[in-house]
Design brief:
alpha+beta, 3-stranded antiparallel sheet, 233 residues
């Protein structure tokens, strides 16, 4: 093989290599951003469900909970949530009255309907009201979270195969002379993105920190103010 031919082959290889490096330098940040968004959405779904459970805990027990074990166990096993149930007193309703045509307040006033407080299981009530939705991976249909899925809400969805837990806190703050319950559930990007390109993660965190008081991670709630919003919303 002549020297000129060898040089041409080498140059072709170099050009292909440089083209790949340029292509990869463009695609790498794009792949990172796509994965970042994917992980944000997965965290958001879990954090929203945790918030739903925390709000049910507060309605039931008057405060938020800072322990996943206590949160899940009490909500799943205790009949402790007060709800108002309607009881129709059919023996008191006149024969010529159709209770379905009577406004409820009037029916209660006449004694035809009684409102009674009953204790129900919080998780069962949330499922009944459709407040613990998830997408079934097999069918693509919406269904309610199972007990096992509720227990697994504590685990950060990424990196796969690891059992990192969300940080969960509950306390009270004083506002206008009153003590207000608050809670916070969060995961920092250092944990959520720990298996991704280190420099791109550092760059993302630095970008977030450029804005004052922004949290470099995903969270719902706050321990310094009475809000239950998520920073992904």
């Amino acid at each position: 093989m002549k020297g000129k031919t060898i040089i041409q082959i080498v140059l072709a290889v170099v050009i292909v290599g440089l083209a790949y490096l340029v292509y990869n330098s463009i695609q790498k940040p794009m792949r990172f951003d796509n994965e970042y968004t994917k992980r944000r959405d997965a965290c958001a779904e879990k954090l929203k469900s945790i918030r739903t459970l925390e709000e049910a805990y507060k309605v039931t027990y008057g405060r938020y909970c800072g322990s996943f074990d206590t949160l899940f166990t009490r909500l799943m096993t205790e009949d402790s949530m007060k709800v108002v149930s309607k009881q129709i007193n059919r023996d008191k309703i006149p024969a010529d009255v159709d209770i379905n045509d009577v406004p409820e307040n009037e029916a209660v006033k006449n004694g035809w309907i009684s409102r009674v407080e009953v204790l129900v299981n919080p998780v069962a009530k949330l499922r009944e009201d459709g407040k613990l939705p998830t997408i079934d991976a097999a069918t693509g249909n919406t269904r309610q979270l199972t007990d096992e899925e509720i227990r697994n809400l504590r685990y950060v969805p990424y990196p796969k195969g690891e059992k990192n837990e969300f940080e969960l806190y509950a306390s009270q703050i004083e506002k206008s002379g009153f003590m207000i319950p608050v809670f916070l559930c969060q995961v920092p990007h250092e944990v959520l993105l720990s298996d991704m390109d280190e420099q791109l993660v550092v760059n993302k965190i630095a970008e977030i920190h450029e804005v004052k008081d922004r949290y470099a991670g995903w969270k719902v709630g706050d321990t310094t103010q009475a809000i239950t919003d998520g920073n992904f919303e």
